[in-house]
Amino acid sequence: MKHAHDLEELRKRLGKSLHLRERLKALSVRQSAKQESAPEWVIVYRTAHGYCCMYDGAPVEDST
């Protein structure tokens, strides 16, 4: 079982020297920023009585 301990220690040292924790954190921040900035779509079409809006598959009522 000494080898397992040695491998764990080697993994920790490599992680520190390569700054893996900071890189993983930066990557997760970058990915979450991409997900938040995704555009939202609204479908608007004309009907006999005016316009109809669909957002995320559900009709949106006009607030005016």
Tell me what portion of residues adopts beta-strand conformation.
15-25%
Radius of gyration: 26 Å
Number of domains: 1
How far do the termini sit from each other? 72 Å
**Main pleated-sheet profile:** 3 strands, antiparallel
* Largest beta sheet: strand ordering: 1-2-3
**Percent range for helical residues?**
40-55%
Number of helices: 2
> Low-confidence runs (pLDDT<50, min 5 residues)?
none
**What's the average pLDDT?**
77
Question: What is the global morphology?
Answer: rod-shaped
In brief:
This protein has 64 residues and is α+β, with helices and mostly antiparallel strands. The protein has helices at 2-18, 20-36; strands at 42-47, 50-55, 58-60. A hairpin with a 2-residue loop joins strand 2 and strand 3 (58-60).
Overview of this structure, please?
There is one protein chain. This protein is 53% helix and 23% strand. It is of the alpha+beta class. It has one domain. It contains two helices and three strands. It is rod-shaped and about 80 Å long.
Topology overview:
Blueprint: H1 2-18, H2 20-36, E1 42-47, E2 50-55, E3 58-60
Antiparallel strand pairs: 1-2, 2-3
Main traits of this protein?
64 residues; alpha+beta; 3-stranded antiparallel beta sheet; 2 helices
